[in-house]
Amino acid sequence: MYVPDIDFLTSDDIPDILRINAESQCSWPEEVIRSDLSDNSSSEITYLGAFASTAEAPLLGYAVLGREKREGLLMALIVDRIYQRRGIGRQLLVAVSDCAMYLKFRRLKLKVRKSNSAAISLYSQMSFVGETVRRGYYSNGEDAVIMSAKLPLKERALN
After folding, report:
1. Do residues 112 and 147 lie in contact, with contact meaning Cβ atoms separated by under 8 Å?
2. pLDDT digit string (tens) for 91-111?
3. How many domains does the chain have?
4. 157 within a domain of the structure (yes/no)
5. Does some domain include residue 105?
6. Nearest one of 115, 118, 109, 110 to 143, comparing CA atoms
7. Burial level of 149, CB count in 10 A (0-12/13-18/19+)?
8. Distance CA 113, CA 123 (A)
9. pLDDT tens across 45-85, in order?
10. Which among 77, 103, 97 is positioned nearest to 149, based on CA atoms?
11. Boundaries of domain holding 58
């Protein structure tokens, strides 16, 4: 497992966020990212990044925490393709969980593509359970699985 430095992202990190975002099958519009991270943003959205522990410290991945009613909402969890399968997503998920608990959330929710078995497996290992399926949620018509977990997250072994 690779152990990155986890930190809050700022507008200075936008070029790296956009680089990783461009490779994602669920990429966000650039103007949304810029707006969220602008100095005058009033959004209640937190961007966390995983950085390499080297001098150049490239961004390896990022997660976005928002709010839906009284629950935390994992809005995005994206790891650079080069660095996937090294535990970075799991570490970002733990950092999001910590932030959500700091904000007094008791649960964390997310939506994930039904076809994204790797992500569903990770979330299941971190105590998320499927609640429902939202048919045709994504722009290509794919279904979303809505999952949630009680905080703090607990890692569990799958059978």
Report:
1. yes
2. 999 999 999 999 999 999 999
3. 1
4. no
5. yes
6. 115
7. buried
8. 12
9. 999 999 988 766 689 999 999 998 889 999 999 999 988 98
10. 97
11. 5-150
- Whole-number average pLDDT of the chain: 91
Q: Is residue 34 assigned to a domain?
A: yes
* 155 belongs to a structural domain: no
CATH code of the domain containing 78: 3.40.630.30
Which tens digit of pLDDT belongs to each residue from 13-24?
Answer: 999 999 999 988
Q: Please tell me whether the overall predicted TM-score, pTM, comes out greater than 0.85 for this model.
A: yes
83 SS3 class: helix
Task: Give the mean pLDDT of 134-144.
Answer: 93
